[in-house]
Amino acid sequence: MVPTAGSPTPACQVRQLQKRGIPVVFCHRRVEGVAAPLLALPLREAGRLAGQALAERGHRRVALFSTRPSPSFAERVEGFNEGLHAGGCDAPARVVHAIESMVVLREEPVWAALKEAFSVPEPPTAIHATFDSMAEMLFLLLPRLGLRVPEDVSLVGFGGAWREGPLSRRLSSVVVDEIATGRRAVSLLHEMRRGLRPLDDTTEFVMDLALAEGETLAPPGGEKQERRGSSSAVKE
């Protein structure tokens, strides 16, 4: 089960499954009040990987585009700033809240936030969007400001390792392997069905992340370059 990021999933509904001996594994986030294994996204690490990738390419004015703050948002920002610092950038990211929720992505608020972010005397040279749908929206909107990706603005998203769409193939992103997540979930379900793991086990398994290079990551005002020592990069 991947609980919704918006309105909370009612705990009573999940408990009804467990009462009938049906095992449940949570992916990405838990349902409050329900004891079950979790395949967790390390959001701090996601921010750190994105920040370090941008800083290592020389970016010093970076914006973080996100939804409105959530309980995990501070962790993402801290990781992003840690990554910037590790890559040689001591200036913290400018945080831009472009939309209310990731459930409904509307162009108007993202466009308004983008114009505001680039109206300052020293605008960002790079953007990290906290999920790929927003990154793709920014990719389409930046040319309206006369800005090219990645020549003028680098763009890094966050999403799945399976890059099947025409935009997602081009987008540079921190990614999680959905196939590996599914396999691990099924393995845990089998363990619980066979009685090798209790249904109310609360073990947390952290999923691995990597950087998918894509085509939207480059030095400020320069051509694309290979990341030094990018042994964890996802290649086509």
Q: In the CATH hierarchy, what is the class of the largest domain? A: Alpha Beta
The number of distinct helices, counting runs of at least 4 residues, comes to 7
Largest sheet data:
6 strands, mixed
Note the beta-strand portion.
15-25%
What's a quick, concise take on this entry?
This protein is of the alpha/beta class. It has two domains: 11-41 and 176-206, no CATH class; 43-175, 3-Layer(aba) Sandwich (Rossmann fold).
How would you portray this structure in words?
The chain is an alpha/beta fold and 236 residues long. It folds into two domains: 11-41 and 176-206, no CATH class; 43-175, Response regulator (Rossmann fold, 3-Layer(aba) Sandwich), CATH 3.40.50. It contains seven helices and nine strands. It has helices spanning 11-19, 43-56, 73-86, 107-117, 132-141, 166-170, 178-193, and strands at 26-28, 38-40, 62-67, 94-99, 126-129, 154-160, 172-176, 204-206, 209-212. A six-stranded mixed beta sheet has the order 4-3-5-6-7-9, with helices on both faces. Strands 1-2-8 form a three-stranded parallel beta sheet, covered by helices on one side. Helix 3 (73-86) links the parallel strand 3 (62-67) and strand 4 (94-99). Helix 2 runs parallel beside helix 3 (73-86) and helix 4 packs across helix 5 (132-141). The relative contact order is 0.16. Residues 224-236 have low confidence and may be disordered.
